[in-house]
Design a protein that fits this description.
mainly alpha; single chain; 4 helices; Four Helix Bundle (Hemerythrin (Met), subunit A)
Length: 135
């Protein structure tokens, strides 16, 4: 069973970003599935590493749009991105050296952060960008 299911409550009405969010959700679900089926550390590490890399790419895309169109909440939004990137990088480092595992708590953190970030923070910039003709 998927940890996160895509629904209209997660859409930001910007096609490219919605597609990226769907991919992020699929990657979180893939990590959750790997954890639930007891996949080895190598598989878990590769999946987590891929999720981190794609998240950075996604954040850069969002930030470029916000910056290009002078979104007034850019600085605080980028700070949210930077904080998550730092947290997940620390988690990944601990995972790689065997100091932590991908647990239900980690999965719930990722799920909660992603869904809340999309539904609250991303919807703010999406309304602004939609008003600038970005869909």
């Amino acid at each position: 069973m998927a940890l996160i299911t895509w629904s209209e409550t997660l859409t930001v009405n910007i096609k490219e970003i919605d597609e990226q969010h769907k991919k992020l959700i699929a990657m979180v679900n893939e990590l959750h599935s790997a954890m639930g089926s007891g996949k080895g550390k190598d598989v878990m590490g590769k999946t987590l590493g891929g999720l981190i890399d794609y998240t950075k790419t996604h954040f850069a895309f969002e930030e470029q749009l916000m910056n290009k169109y002078a979104y007034p909440g850019y600085i605080s939004h980028k700070a949210d991105h930077d904080a998550l990137t730092k947290q997940v990088a620390e988690l990944y480092t601990k995972f790689q050296v065997g100091k932590t595992l991908v647990t239900v708590e980690v999965m719930n953190f990722l799920k909660d952060w992603l869904t809340k970030h999309i539904q609250a923070t991303d919807k703010k910039y999406s309304s602004y960008l939609n008003g600038k003709g970005i869909i």
